[in-house]
Specification:
The structure holds two protein chains of two kinds. Chain A is mainly α. Chain A contains seven helices and two strands, in the order αβααααααβ. Chain A has a single domain (13-168), classed as Arp2/3 complex 21 kDa subunit ARPC3. In chain B, helix 4 crosses helix 5. The chains are: A mainly alpha, B alpha+beta.
Chain lengths: 174, 452
């Protein structure tokens, strides 16, 4: 009986997803984001596309795949929100790349790691968006409200833990 | 060279992706180009820059993919809610119906009260050739989705180009303005439109402060509230003042409610201007149904004119009825005064024993009192000559002519005056009325004043 011979951590824990899951999960995340914020305006704090980006990036453990995934999800977000294409996609490209790079170095399956990771990525996303809108687009009125962003990071972290456990079921080990 | 690319493959791909997106972003947010005359409103991004056809197509495709799901979810939730509220949860509906009827009556009265003023205003406007825009056509739409992010405040409506919607049409609710149509998707989603809310940071409207009549420009902020920041400090502008549309932006008709001034403070970023924060009249975070203004005209629609005419007629009727009621009340008051005066005269006549004839009938007495009252009310001579007193029926010591002349009186001598005995009819009245004290026989009695 042949057993797979893993030589690196990347080979040991690299996952892939079915094309259906790859296509549907981001679309459903964006759809839920659009619908939930209509019924519950407070859920503007939640960023489901960001959580999906981070999940795919750390699961695939490929920085290029993470960056491309983040870019596509960000572009979809920009298309729906009516903003110029590139605001969310630039931010999520960077997030996807960094998340995949971190996934190569540390164990991202543990709950504690996930909590810290999601919190930091949420804050990082807010910072990237602020820099893009304020510096690249020149919108001087845009402000970074730290208390608001901390609350956003906490909400994203609270939602991400059960969401990641649910999405773990769609993983396929390579 | 090959090892360099393989070694830095990830970083190079990242840089390439970021570069492509940055260039694309720069192309989109370049300075807006004024479209040629007659070309209609150009499709713009939320920053106001015109979009390339590719971006527009991409947006319409993603809307076409997502909108069926949004409509399905919205339809399902609407069905469930309407089933619950229209069939199951009808507690208090009768009471609410009654309250609404009362409210309707009150509003009818209000409408009647202002109808005349409105008609007068219309006449004055026509005299001055004033161009006013009235809403002549609206389309009701429901909100089916949002942008999903607080960076842009955009909503999706279930009506689109197939329903006559076009970009830059004003969107309102009965409470106040909401925003404008930013985009429609005639090719891929003809029944979906994108609404840019008034509190988006790229949105704006021309407004007028109701009391001070100051014109200003209203803008949205990143935090999602409305702000006027192009006015210098003015003591007259205070919190609580209503803000209306000025009609100067060419999108919103004049006079629609926008909101109320919530706070006035110096703008730290743009001195010496003030930051006037406005609380929106419409609840922008809980929008369910909106009205899109599809047409305006310079005169009032016939239905509105008819309603105004009815209101004016009702006002005239109400005014005539009020005048008649006031006249009736005045007449009744006059009658009651006359009655009271006559009653008082009768009481006085009853209480004065010398003026009452026991043999006189009631009719004669009333006729006599009335004649006296008429004579008092309408004196025949302009100078107001004092009338002669009526002849005394039963003379007493107070009757004129009964007192002996002073020349016949002797100081210090006793002097008695015969008085008439009281009759049986006068006795009870005498008991009710204190009779005058008998004249004292003391030498100093003449100097004593009568006690009233």
């Amino acid at each position: 009986m042949l057993t797979p011979g893993y030589t690196t951590r990347r080979e040991l824990e690299e996952h892939s997803f079915s094309p259906v899951a790859t296509l549907l999960v981001p679309l459903v995340a964006i759809l839920l984001q659009v619908l939930l914020t209509k019924t519950f305006p407070q859920l503007f704090l939640l960023d489901l596309p960001l959580l999906v980006t981070v999940f795919f990036a750390v699961s695939r453990r490929s920085p290029i795949a993470g960056a491309v995934t983040g870019m596509i999800i960000g572009l979809l977000e920009d298309l729906v929100s009516g903003q110029p294409l590139g605001i969310n996609s630039l931010s999520k490209t960077l997030i996807g790349y960094i998340a995949a790079s971190i996934g190569l170095q540390i164990d991202v399956e543990a709950i504690t790691t996930r909590v810290v990771m999601i919190f930091l990525f949420s804050m990082m996303n807010s910072l990237f968006l602020y820099l893009i809108v304020r510096r690249l687009l020149g919108l001087e009125t845009h402000q970074l409200l730290w208390r608001h962003e901390l609350l956003r990071a906490a909400v994203n972290t609270a939602v991400a833990i059960p969401l990641f456990f649910a999405l773990d079921r769609s993983k396929r080990r390579q | 060279m090959e090892s360099f690319f393989s070694r830095f493959k990830n970083s190079l791909v990242l840089v390439a992706l970021l570069l492509i997106q940055t260039i694309g972003l720069a192309v989109q947010v370049r300075r807006p180009v004024v479209p040629p005359l007659g070309s209609g409103p150009a499709t713009t991004s939320s920053l106001g820059a015109p979009e390339t056809p590719d971006v527009t197509v991409a947006r319409s495709w993603i809307v076409a993919v997502l909108s069926p799901a949004e409509r399905a979810v919205h339809g399902t939730s609407t069905f469930l809610r309407s089933t619950w509220f229209n069939y199951l949860d009808l507690r208090g509906a009768r009471r609410q119906n009654l309250d609404l009827r009362h409210q309707l009556d009150a509003l009818r009265l209000q409408q009647a009260a202002i109808a005349e003023d409105a008609l007068e205003g219309l006449r004055l406007q026509s005299l001055l050739a004033f161009q006013q825009h009235y809403v002549s056509g609206t389309v009701a739409a429901q909100v089916i989705g949002t942008s999903g992010t607080d960076l842009s405040r955009v909503l999706y409506l279930d009506k689109g180009s197939a329903d006559g919607l076009k970009p830059d049409m004003a969107v309102i609710t009965p409470d106040g303005i909401v925003g404008k149509i930013r985009e429609v998707f005639p090719q891929t989603a003809p029944h979906v439109a994108q609404l840019l809310l008034i509190n988006d940071q790229t949105s704006g409207a021309g407004v007028l402060l109701e009391k001070t009549r100051v014109r200003a420009v209203l803008r949205g902020t990143t935090a999602g509230y409305l702000q006027i920041s192009n006015l210098t400090p003015d003591d007259r502008i205070k919190p609580g003042e209503q803000v209306l549309t000025s009609g100067g932006d060419g999108i919103f008709p004049r006079g629609l409610p926008v909101g109320m001034i919530e706070a006035v403070a110096p703008d730290p970023d743009h001195q010496p201007y003030t930051a006037i924060r406005i609380r929106s009249a419409a609840n922008l975070t809980r929008l369910e149904e909106v009205l899109i203004i599809t047409g305006t005209e310079n005169s009032l629609p016939p239905a509105s004119l008819h309603a105004l005419a009815r209101g004016a007629a009702a006002t005239a009727e109400a005014r005539a009825a009020a005048q008649k009621a006031a006249a009736d009340r005045a007449a009744a008051l006059e009658a009651s005064k006359e009655e009271a005066a006559r009653s008082a005269a009768e009481v006085v006549a009853d209480r004065l024993p010398g003026l009452h004839d026991p043999d006189e009938s009631v009719e004669d007495r009333e006729a006599r009192v009335k004649a006296a009252a008429d004579a008092a009310a309408h004196p025949k001579t302009a100078g107001g000559t004092v009338p002669h007193p009526l002849p005394t029926v039963h003379a007493d010591r107070y009757s004129p002519g009964t007192t002996p002349p002073a020349s016949t009186l002797t100081p210090g001598a006793s002097h008695t005056i015969e008085t008439a005995p009281a009759t049986n009819e006068e006795a009870p009245q005498a008991r009710r009325t204190p009779s005058p004290a008998p004249r004292s026989t003391s030498p100093n009695s003449d100097a004593t004043p009568p006690q009233l």
